[in-house]
Design a protein that fits this description.
four-stranded antiparallel sheet; alpha+beta; Porin; 32 strands; 2 domains
Length: 699
């Protein structure tokens, strides 16, 4: 007996899951040429026998099955089309060699007569489990009887029993799900998205897997990192999602996650710092165009003293709310010295063809190519939003509508936080294969006069500044911006942003440094693979924002949400230089970040209670002067922040990482006050986290 006969399978069961135009069962089975003379009642048996025989005679068991002494099962979900062709829809097997071999066999299957319904050709779908290694049956008749018994049992089962896992095959990489905002991961993506000649638009973030897939095969990259694990625990810990399921027309994954940090701050009153976040991530797809993603966080933590002071300085109104955790939201007290801060995020993403993507949810957004953004950033708490992305020709146009909150005491009405709304436009245009420009516009308005969502701002192509002017000078706060990016080569590019909150030509060119010149700009560079070193990424960025930018003379129409800035973490009245280096090799990664800045704070004393333009929640009416305003005015403070991190990616599918970090921060104001005083921090952290959002410690 040949080796093939000794190693070949067969426990083969053809299970039917039929879908046709009418939704009823087809009246005639697909017909192989060998079955053309059979009666209608025998076509099912003939189809099964012929398919079994073909696979039996053509399938060559890969050598790895014998080397690994593997005993298991592979499952193929396939279709016989209206044209009578065999088409694999999904294939699940432990080894790629098994998938390749079965695909080869299916490619050799002949074109047959399709099934019919009401005398018209229709498609039919089948689920085929195959035991590995293949083993010959005693006879073809016995094999047929086994299949028929299973099929009859199947026919008698109820709908619940007919639900089968067709085998998840990394559908997320071709979906409309957003790639979680992580600077380390986006640095890798940036290189491929920014190749000269690409028509990618890189400022509107987060990206979807589908749009990145055109330029970078994330699935292949992650798969290359997989470890050779065959046990359930080994595969789910090192390579795969914890729970995955794929049915006919839908799929989903479920993963538990953590963000566990344990640290030590030098010269602290506490023995240790910590963060204890448990989370669950569920994502999936319904049909080809609708995807969903949701995360539930439950967190408690205590951080370095400077972080705790900042969190408490932006606390929400109301008893029991001692802090707002930056990037998360309102926290309550936990064991007297720590905070409890739950959070839930989620969204639906629907694609209308290749041009339109619509998202509705509660999450973060980012506009820009830099580490910071002067337009929209991910430094604040998640917010409810509706977003429309339109992509065609050399353009990508993003419209976003958001609901924000002002949680300060002075903005609280009858114990309820004040709601305000924000609408933004961002048009990205690839002028050439190297040059991109972007036009940004946003407007904020509150719910005064029970205004609610102002229909004037629902128009996706209208000019907001004109609407703001026509509805009254205090009805909204509009900003405009300009961005640009130039790719000198595949490795080197320059980017920038210019934000205009208010622009008075006479004041700008009058040279008196008027408070009305509420402007800011950003200039940055990215260098990929410098000195020929693969996977090394360098970035330098300078940001400068004049006093009173993002503020307003109406109490709630500042550019903030949950007492945090919607753009730059430092608000306004600052200048900042950032240098970043990132590197990865396989599952190892590391980064270094240095920030040198100057920011002007208010003095907040009985002798000097003026606003100097650094706090975006202060009122313009309380300004210190009308002219002579310069960046860093007030209590001028020099800030240095150094952050260093090394880590290891445990699971590339879930982005679970273990890491160690060191932060050194020096804060040196001109005058020590109750809220701003000279201090230095050395903070060491060790942790394990599911990296699906950015922590910012550099304020």
């Amino acid at each position: 007996m040949t080796q093939k006969a000794l190693t070949l399978i067969f426990f083969l069961t053809v299970l039917f899951s039929v879908a046709q135009d009418s939704g009823s069962e087809f009246e005639k089975y697909p017909v192989f040429p060998e079955c053309e003379n059979e009666s209608v009642h025998n076509l099912k048996s003939c189809f099964n026998n012929t398919l079994q025989t073909f696979i039996f005679n053509n399938f060559k068991t890969p050598q790895i099955v014998f080397d690994e002494n593997y005993n298991g099962q592979m499952v193929v979900f396939f279709e016989v089309t209206r044209e009578g062709k065999f088409k694999i829809l999904a294939l699940d097997a432990i080894y790629q060699e098994l998938k390749d071999e079965l695909e080869r066999v299916f490619d050799e299957l002949p074109k047959i007569q399709p099934a019919t319904y009401n005398a018209r050709p229709t498609y039919t779908q089948f689920t085929l489990p195959i035991k590995i290694p293949l083993q010959p049956s005693d006879s073809a008749e016995e094999a047929t009887n086994v299949r028929e018994i299973v099929s009859l049992q199947r026919d008698k089962s109820n709908e619940y029993d007919q639900i089968q896992n067709l085998g998840y095959s990394n559908e997320k990489y071709n979906s409309n799900i957003n790639i979680p905002l992580s600077h380390q991961d986006y640095a890798r993506i940036d290189f491929y998205m920014n190749q000269v000649g690409n028509n990618a638009h890189t400022a509107q973030r987060p990206f979807t897997y589908k749009e990145v897939n055109k330029y970078f095969d994330m699935e292949a990259r992650d798969t290359l990192l997989f470890k050779n694990k065959t046990s359930w625990f080994g595969r789910n810990w090192w390579n795969e999602h914890m729970v995955s399921f794929k049915g006919n027309g839908y799929w989903f994954t479920i993963d538990p996650g953590v963000d566990l940090q344990l640290g030590k701050e030098a010269d602290s009153d506490f023995d240790y710092t910590y963060n204890n976040t448990r989370l669950a991530v569920i994502q999936g797809g319904l049909g080809k165009n609708l995807n969903f993603h949701a995360v539930i966080y439950e967190s408690q933590g205590r951080f370095a003293n400077y972080f705790n002071r900042y969190a408490e300085s932006i606390a929400a109104d109301g008893g029991g709310n001692p802090a707002v955790i930056p990037g998360f939201g309102i926290a309550k007290e936990f064991r007297e010295t720590a905070y409890d801060y739950p959070l839930a995020t989620g969204y639906l993403s629907y694609s209308l063809g290749e041009m339109f993507n619509v998202q509705l949810g509660h999450a973060k957004n980012f506009i820009g190519d830099g580490y910071r953004s002067l337009f929209i950033s991910d430094v604040s708490s998640p917010a409810p939003f509706f977003k429309l992305n339109t992509t065609f020709w050399k353009l990508k146009y993003t419209n976003t509508w958001m609901s924000l909150r002002d949680v300060r005491q002075e903005a609280t009405i009858d114990g309820a936080f004040t709601t305000k709304y924000m609408a933004t436009h961002y048009l990205s245009y690839n002028i050439s294969k190297r040059l991109n420009i972007g036009l940004f516009e946003s407007v904020l308005w509150d719910n005064s006069n029970d205004r609610g969502i102002d229909v004037n701002y629902l128009n996706p192509i209208i000019f907001y500044r004109a609407i703001e002017f026509s509805t009254g000078p205090r009805s909204g706060n509009a900003l405009i911006g300009l961005s640009a990016k130039y790719k000198f080569s595949d490795q080197f590019l320059m980017y920038g942003q210019w934000i205009i909150d208010e622009f008075s030509t006479s004041d700008v060119f009058g040279g008196e440094k008027s408070w009305k010149n509420k402007l800011g700009y950003q200039l940055g560079f990215k260098y990929f693979k410098p000195f020929g070193i693969d996977n090394l990424y360098l970035q330098a960025e300078y940001n400068r924002v004049r006093p009173f930018t993002y503020t307003h003379n109406t109490i709630v129409l500042n550019y903030g949400h949950n007492n945090q800035s919607m753009s730059h973490l430092w608000g306004a009245n600052f200048s900042e230089f950032i240098a970043i280096a990132r590197y990865e090799k396989g599952r190892l990664f590391g980064s270094a970040k240095l920030i040198f800045g100057e920011k002007g704070f208010d003095f907040n004393t009985d002798e000097d209670s003026f606003a100097y333009g650094g706090d975006i929640y202060s009122s313009e009416r309380d300004r210190n002067a009308d002219t002579g305003l310069s960046v860093g005015q007030g209590n001028s403070t020099s800030i240095f922040h150094g952050e260093f991190q090394v880590g290891y990616t445990i699971n590339p599918s879930t982005n679970l990482k273990v890491y160690a970090s060191l932060i050194y921060r020096d804060f040196n104001p001109q005058v020590n006050t109750a809220t701003e005083f000279k201090n230095s921090t050395t903070w060491f952290n060790f942790g394990i986290r599911t990296d699906i959002f950015n922590w910012y410690y550099d304020f």
